[in-house]
Specification:
With 331 residues, the chain is mainly alpha-helical. The chain folds into 2 domains: 80-178, putative rabgap domain of human tbc1 domain family member 14 like domains (Helicase, Ruva Protein, domain 3); 188-330, Cyclin A, domain 1 (Orthogonal Bundle), CATH 1.10.472. It contains 19 helices and no strands. It comes from Culicoides sonorensis.
């Protein structure tokens, strides 16, 4: 058997799993690297003529096809509202670093530091930075404070941006603007969106929705980590970063596009299951298999497999679900 040209460590410093499919990965990456090289040249040409803040639909199209790694920090900041918010409070992060902080929160964060990407060969150098980003954010947003899952988001942001302040503002963008109320103590937004996703699946595949209900696996078990971590520590890193490219530019609807795609593309496997254990194993395979390893193909699929999916449709479902919950609470 030929030896793969890819090492046991990926380009972001993560150790590949023992069962990693090197043969398949080499096959798809040979094509993908060619695509990335071509895209980088196009990005350079685009940025010579356009400001990211005024990129419009052309920028959206470019982002969907992937942002070159060297350009990600700037594009993430400027394609989201993080850049504008930082411009309004340019000294905020440095001021927060000088503030005294809650000991209990700091202890919670310190417990999670060694648990954050322990298999990553580069991450030791970012542990102090991770603490700084998380503790300053807890000071800035008392309603959230610190919540498990934020360590994975902030950790991956640091690996990409290599900059504490940029990571702080991007974390703030995720928690407050992209998935608000996911990381609060009540997790109100998360609970709502889990039900929204279930309804989106029901609309597109009633048989999947019915089968999952019959098997008895709660949607929360399937979706909570996907949503809380925005797929960090869930999907392959390159795929996560391509998803984040789109999330920072287009917002929360990308989270639903990815989730619906993961479920619909595994329809036949889901329908063959007989109990919760089998169903859980289908989802474990779904987030690690060839479908998600082929980043370019997977990202293309999230814009086709779910069909038409508008922000207004999601907002309408959120409103309906919250009204029903309020009625049930009153009753």
């Amino acid at each position: 058997m030929a030896v793969s040209k890819f090492s046991e460590i990926d380009e972001y410093g993560f150790k590949r799993p023992p069962d990693f499919d090197y043969e398949y990965y080499e096959k798809i990456m040979t094509v993908y690297y060619t695509v990335l090289t071509s895209r980088a040249l196009r990005w350079e040409k685009f940025l010579r003529k356009h400001d990211i803040l005024d990129g419009g639909n052309t920028l959206k199209r470019f982002i969907r096809k992937g942002i070159p790694a060297s350009m990600r920090p700037e594009v993430w900041l400027k394609s989201s509202s993080a850049f504008v918010h930082r411009q309004r409070q340019p000294d905020l992060y440095q001021k927060l670093l000088k503030c005294s902080y809650d000991k209990e929160t700091a202890d919670q964060i310190r417990v999670d530091l060694p648990r954050t990407f322990p298999e990553n060969i580069y991450f030791d150098q970012y542990k102090t930075s991770l603490f700084n980003v998380l503790i300053t954010y807890s000071l800035n947003n008392k309603d959230v404070g610190y919540c498990q899952g934020l360590n994975y988001i902030a950790g991956l942001l640091l690996l990409v941006t290599k900059n504490e302040e940029h990571s702080f503002w991007l974390l703030k963008e995720v928690v407050e603007n992209i998935v608000p109320s996911y990381h609060t103590k009540s997790m109100y937004g998360l609970i709502t969106d889990v039900e929204v996703l279930a309804q989106l699946v029901r609309q597109r595949s009633p048989e999947i929705h019915k089968h999952i209900k019959q098997v008895g696996l709660p949607w929360e078990v399937i979706l909570t980590k996907w949503f809380i971590c925005i797929f960090a520590e869930v999907l392959p890193v390159e795929t996560v970063l391509r998803i984040w490219d789109c999330i920072f530019a287009e917002g929360f609807k990308i989270l639903f596009r990815v989730s619906v795609t993961l479920i619909l593309r595994n329809r036949s496997e889901i329908l063959r299951t007989h109990d919760m254990s089998e169903l859980l194993n289908v989802f474990r395979r779904a987030i690690k298999g060839q479908q998600v390893l082929d980043t370019h193909q997977f990202i293309n699929s999230i814009f086709s497999v779910p069909g038409r999916l508008k922000r207004s449709d999601i907002e309408k479902l959120r409103t309906q679900i919250n009204k029903t919950r309020l009625k049930d609470k009153v009753a």
